[in-house]
Design brief:
Number of helices: 10
Number of strands: 8
CATH topology: Rossmann fold
CATH superfamily: Alpha/Beta hydrolase fold, catalytic domain
Low-confidence stretches: none
Number of domains: 1
Structural class: alpha/beta
Helix content: 25-40%
Distance between the termini: 36 Å
Order of helices and strands: HEEEHEHEHEHHHEHEHH
Oligomer: single chain
CATH architecture: 3-Layer(aba) Sandwich
Shape: globular
Length: about 280
């Protein structure tokens, strides 16, 4: 297509058809003390009557834990819903208003809300998959793998990490101690024990849900290193896991999903069908 802007508009028009969006649903049982606003989520469900008890995909966006908003990812929810996947796009409180633990707690609450309510949107809570890009990958992994957040790993059918950041913050912050830049000091503190608690790599176990990993071959070196370390840690429990490497930088790892014909959709749906 010669005009990329026209192509994007056409994609958005096409994928909007046949999809019902339920917007700004508050999911917290109680507002966290240091949250300025109550976060909410959007649900995208297929309209066609043939779609009932569909698999569910819960998505958490990235943004370095200090930026981003769920409204930017309507294309993601619509594209998956058009393909018969009920999709939940989660918003959460960002740094400096929230630290990593508040964010993770909110994501865990969004997961619990989905498990309890998604049948109202044609979804099957027993077929719940989690996915996140960048910081979002960190948050879904930590919320699921650290029992402190109250998610039963067996209730999650699978986790799809898309160029996930923060999988080993302990290792990263030992090399680059947090400062006020990017609000990292308020996000992670200056305590190495906190960094360890914030790192999903320390919670891998035989109970970890089946994982699918995308990693950009041109991504940030810190993400490349952390994903390699995470893969090494989880290999004893999931020996067949191999990351899918794509010839992309970090942001295009997410923006590729604007195109509803992108091969990632069928790869992810295949993973969901197999688990």
């Amino acid at each position: 297509m010669r005009n990329p802007i026209l192509g994007i508009i056409l994609c958005l028009i096409i994928t909007s058809c046949g999809v019902r969006k339920s917007a700004d649903i508050e999911y917290l049982q109680k507002v966290q003390a240091n949250s300025e606003n109550t976060p909410s989520l959007n649900v995208f469900s297929p309209k066609k009557s043939k779609y009932q008890n569909t698999p569910v995909l819960l998505f958490v966006h990235g943004g370095n834990w200090n930026s981003g908003k769920k409204e930017l990812y309507d294309f993601y929810g619509k594209n998956f819903a058009k393909k018969g996947i009920t999709t939940v796009v989660v918003g959460y409180t960002l740094s400096p208003e929230a630290d990593y633990k508040v964010m993770t707690t909110q994501v865990a609450e969004a997961i619990k809300w989905t498990q309890e309510n998604i049948t109202e949107y044609k979804g099957d809570p027993k077929k719940l998959f989690l996915t996140g890009h960048s910081a979002g990958g960190h948050l879904i992994a930590l919320a699921t793998m650290n029992e402190e957040y109250g998610i039963e790993p067996s209730s999650i059918s699978g986790i799809i990490l898309n160029d996930a950041a923060g999988l080993d913050m302990h290792h990263y912050l030992q090399q680059y101690p947090p400062t006020t830049t990017d609000n990292y000091l308020s996000t992670w503190s200056d305590d190495p024990e906190v960094w360890k608690k914030a790192s999903p790599i320390f919670y891998v176990s035989e109970n970890t849900p089946e994982i699918m990993m995308y990693v950009g071959e041109k991504t940030y070196s810190s993400i490349e290193v952390a994903n390699k370390r995470f893969l090494e840690a989880i290999k004893p429990f999931q020996p067949d896991l191999e990351p899918i490497l794509l010839d992309k930088k970090h942001i295009p790892m997410m923006t590729q999903f604007i195109w509803p014909w992108n091969n990632r959709y069928q790869e992810m749906i295949r993973f969901m069908s197999d688990n």
